[in-house]
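lol so apparently i was supposed to do this last week
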Amino acid sequence: MIKKRIAIFISGRGSNMEAIVRQAQIGILKDCCEVVLVFANKREAKGLETANQMNIATASIVSKGKKRRDFDQKVLDFIRPYHIDYIVLAGFMRIISPIMISEYPNRIINIHPADTKEFKGLGAYEWAFENQLESTKITVHYVDSGVDTGNIIEQQTVDLKGTTTLEEIEVRGLQVEHRFYSEVLQKVFSTVS
Ligand code: GRF
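anyway here it is w/ 5-O-phosphono-beta-D-ribofuranosylamine bound
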C-alpha cells in the first residue's frame, strides 16, 4: 500500500496529534500513512514542540488578523510542496474556507468531542458536564465549510457515568479520542486509493 502523506493541523496542546504521530511511527497507522508536517495557526501552540521532539517537520502561519480566505490561500501555497493527501485537524480552531475544501475534497478530517448532530462548536465537554450527560459521542467527520457540519465517518460512545467534574469528563473523553481517531484514520486510509 502506498502510504498517505498527511499534515496534522493544530492550534494548541496537540494531544491528539501526538497520539496520531505515535501510531504512524510505531503503531496501527505505520503501514498506511506518514505524518509529513504538523502545522499550527499560532506560533505558541504547545503541540509544535511535541512534534519537533518526535522528529516531525513543523510550521506555523499566524492566522490572527488575516481574512479567512487570505489565510487559507497562504496555507495552501505553503503546504503544496509537501504533496499532502490528507489534512487531519486535531484541535485546529479555525473554520476552513471553500478554497481549501475544494483543493482537498473529502480529504480534510476532524475530530469533535460530541455528537455533531447534537452539539457543534467549542465547549463540547462543558456542554456534557453542564447537562450531566451519562454519555457522549466522539465524532470523526469530513470537514466542509461549516462548523462541525461535515459527513460523519464514525462515532464512539464514551461512558460518563460516575464523573463529577469537567476535568474527569475531559480525561475520559480524551482517552477515547486518542485511540479512536487513529482507528478511524486507519480505516479511511486503508480503504481509499
Ligand atoms: C480535542 O478535544 C478535540 O476533539 C477538539 O479539540 C481538542 C483538542 O485537544 N477538536 P488536543 O489539542 O488534541 O489535545
